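# step 3/5: fold
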Amino acid sequence: MSKPMIEVSHLSYTYRADHTHKKVLDDVSLNIMAGQCVAIIGFNGSGKTTLIQHFNGLLRPTDGSVLIDGIDVGASGTDLRSLRQRVGMLFQFPESQLFARSIYQDVAFGPRRMKLGRHEVRARVLAALDMVGLPQREYGWRSPFDLSGGQRRRVALAGVIAMTPKVLVLDEPSIGLDGEGRAEFYRYVRRVQQEQGVTIVLVSHDMSEVAALAEWLFVLYDGRLVMQGTPRDVFTAGEQLRAWHLAPPPLEELLVLLRKQGLPVPTDLYTLEDVCAYLMTRATSVKYAE
């Protein structure tokens, strides 16, 4: 059995400032396998961002350990540059960090800092732009500031992809985008995972996105890992989620109400795609019955 890409063992983290101490993470342990798409969910202040900042060494454990692809984040002498080449991070509104005159130059910035040869840099930029649906011949020469918000965010994603990380951490990456922009952005995130085998770690308040994208969820509350499981397992625990100031996706709540009304809605539906497939099957069955 393969080893986890991310191993968090009894991790605690305490912020220390001005003679005050605040424990933000408390004895968190979890494993994320290579190639998985997982989501970390929790109410504001639950410790989500503090946790993911350990994944590329922005923070180091107060207690416990974090291993990324075998690299001990908290160990003395850890090569943070090597770590950060393995872990690409996209924070909220990443397009605000775009600065170059052209899209090509912006995406090339990371690979150039890795001191790669000119031909390798170009190959990575072209591949990354193709991966996010902004091919060089149409977009590479354009200014990133001439694009829509969703396209600029995809340029930021391409900049991370061009560094060929093994892990991609997305912290509320769709915030501020309309429905079409969110769907488009996540379509390319799925493509990165499927075609390059990148491990995806998503932090999101949008439970509908989480249900559609992630195969495993970690629930944080007050700095502790209080639950983990498949989206189906987690979202069916509606009352418990509310106690942690979370709510299942609206679709899940609708299905629960329909079941309470006596409709024979299967309990294994939790995404819109599941529901549509079920309705199509039901419609076909009724048609043949007639």
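# step 4/5: annotate
The radius of gyration is 21 Å.
# step 5/5: archive (pending)
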